């Protein structure tokens, strides 16, 4: 069994890749600890769907958390993203949904239907908040699961104030 210390990041690779690169830059510059599941292997778009999914499963085998970068077109994606979300849910990975539009709660217009009622924290794309969620949501997720809770969660305004976020 693989050592699960990675974070699996899913996003619309055609449109939202810059947000992913910024996340990686924040981590590289000491913003937070981030061991990217994408570093496990290289799943190329030119490979067959079956081959890509095999590579993605290896990434999931090494992952302890799932982050979804939620952009304008994410909910409309039909190929790999819904499958990735299903994998995260089946593996009971803590899920952090990062709203690229800055919304502080679940965005029903952008969030894929499968995640609208699933246990996940929904946050805006802010470095301090992302670090906070990565540090704290896994324990909250575990406690909510223990108590049989589900659904979309968001942080109280006091968390934003404590982090210096307007």
Task: Describe the overall structure.
The chain is α/β, with parallel strands linked by helices. The protein has a single domain, classed as Rossmann fold. Helices cover 37% and strands 15% of the residues. The chain contains five helices and five strands. Strands 1-2-3-4-5 form a five-stranded parallel β-sheet, sandwiched between helices. Strand 4, helix 4 and strand 5 form a beta-alpha-beta unit. The chain is globular, with a radius of gyration of 15 Å. The protein starts with 5 loop residues before the first strand and ends with a helix. The model has no long low-confidence stretch (mean pLDDT 89). This is Molecular chaperone Tir.
Order of helices and strands: EHHEHEEHEH
Strand composition percent: 15-25%
Gyration radius from CA atoms, angstroms = 15 Å
CATH architecture assignment name: 3-Layer(aba) Sandwich
What's the level 1 CATH class? Alpha Beta
The major β-sheet equals: 5 strands, parallel
- How many domains, in number, for the residues? 1
Q: Oligomeric form of this entry?
A: single chain
Structural class: alpha/beta
CATH topology: Rossmann fold
Report, as a whole number of angstroms, the end-to-end distance: 43 Å
Residues in helices, as a percent range: 25-40%
Contiguous uncertain segments of 5+ residues: none
What is the residue-mean pLDDT, rounded to a whole number? Answer: 89
Spatial sequence of strands, sheet with the most strands: 1-2-3-4-5
InterPro entries: ThsB__TIR-like_domain
Protein name: Molecular chaperone Tir
Pfam families: ThsB_TIR
Organism: Bifidobacterium choloepi
């Amino acid at each position: 069994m693989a050592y699960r210390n990675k974070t699996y990041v899913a996003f619309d690779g055609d449109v939202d890749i810059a947000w992913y690169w910024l996340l990686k830059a924040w981590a590289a510059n000491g913003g937070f600890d981030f061991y990217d599941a994408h570093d496990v292997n290289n799943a190329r778009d030119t490979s067959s769907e079956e081959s890509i999914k095999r590579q993605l499963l290896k990434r999931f085998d090494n992952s302890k958390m799932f982050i979804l970068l939620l952009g304008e077109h994410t909910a409309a994606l039909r190929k790999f993203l819904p499958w990735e979300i299903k994998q995260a849910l089946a593996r009971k990975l803590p899920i952090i949904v990062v709203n690229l539009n800055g919304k502080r709660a679940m965005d029903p217009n952008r969030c894929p239907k499968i995640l609208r009622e699933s246990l996940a924290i929904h946050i805006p794309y802010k470095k301090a908040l992302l670090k906070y969620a990565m540090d704290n949501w896994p324990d909250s997720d575990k406690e909510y699961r223990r108590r049989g809770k589900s659904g979309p969660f968001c942080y109280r305004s006091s968390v934003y104030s404590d982090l210096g976020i307007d």
